[in-house]
Structure formats: structure tokens, C-alpha cells
Design goal:
The protein is mostly helical. It has helices spanning 34-40, 64-100, 108-122, 124-137; strands at residues 42-45, 48-51, 54-55. Residues 54-65 have a biased composition (Polar residues).
């Protein structure tokens, strides 16, 4: 190594919690007292802050409103996934009927209409969503 070169330490992998989420170390400001923490959540053990039994990777309590919002998002996601599964089955039925009547496997005119509807409703990202949904519903060749 030349005198002007400096050694770079090897990159250390980020620590990962039991849920697979990267743990980010943070420093707690001195203004955050135990009383402040107790008013937001409960202190389960030294150095570990939990709110409604839900620790966070950064050592800060998760507000109750966030937890209930996340539960609502999880419920919505479950319903969206169920609807997508229902759409896949319906599309397979339509595709089989179209092929049985001598048609093509795909109806590109119909797909274009669907993409336009998603774009009108969701803006530019709607095109990506529509394309993903259509890809899921095209079935396997």
C-alpha cells in the first residue's frame, strides 16, 4: 500500500431482526425520559421500548394509530389479493370460452381498454398496475 492510500474497512452487513427487517441503531435524545416513554407505551425491558406489545426496529414506540392503520392496510391487502385471485379465475373461464369458439387466447383491444381505465383512475402508475394484473390473468401458455 502506498503512503497516500488509505485502507477502507470491509463493509459490515446490517443487523437483521427476527422479522427479517434491518435493525437501524438510533440514539435516544436526552429529552426523552422514561416518563415520556411510559406515557406513549410501556417499557418491557431496559433498552427496549414497546407500544401495545409491538417493538419497532428503531427502538421507538409505534403509536396506536399507526398499528390500527397497519391492521386496516393488512385487511385491505387481503381483500385485494382475494379479488385478484377471483379475477384470475374469471379471466381463465373467459379465455377458455374464447379459445373454444375459435378466438385468440388474448384480446388486445380489451386489454387496451382495461389499461386505459386503470390509467384514468390511478394516473400513470395505473398503467403498471393494469399490466401486472393482466399478466397475472393471462394464464400460462
Amino acid at each position: 500500500m502506498t503512503p497516500s492510500a488509505t485502507a477502507t474497512p470491509a463493509a459490515q452487513p446490517e443487523p437483521v431482526g427476527p422479522d427479517g427487517v434491518a435493525v437501524v441503531p438510533v440514539s435516544v435524545p436526552r429529552s426523552l425520559s422514561v416518563e415520556t416513554v411510559e406515557s406513549v407505551g410501556s417499557v418491557e425491558s431496559v433498552g427496549s421500548v414497546e407500544s401495545v406489545g409491538q417493538p419497532t426496529s428503531v427502538g421507538q414506540p409505534t403509536p396506536t394509530g399507526v398499528l390500527s392503520g397497519r391492521a386496516q392496510i393488512d385487511d385491505l391487502d387481503s381483500r385485494i389479493l382475494a379479488l385478484i385471485a377471483e379475477r384470475v379465475q374469471t379471466a381463465a373461464t373467459i379465455q377458455a370460452a374464447r379459445i373454444a369458439e375459435g378466438g385468440r387466447r388474448l384480446d388486445l383491444k380489451r386489454e387496451t381498454e382495461i389499461i386505459a381505465r386503470y390509467r384514468e383512475s390511478l394516473g400513470r402508475p395505473g398503467v403498471t398496475v393494469a399490466m401486472a394484473v393482466l399478466e397475472l390473468c393471462r394464464g400460462r401458455v
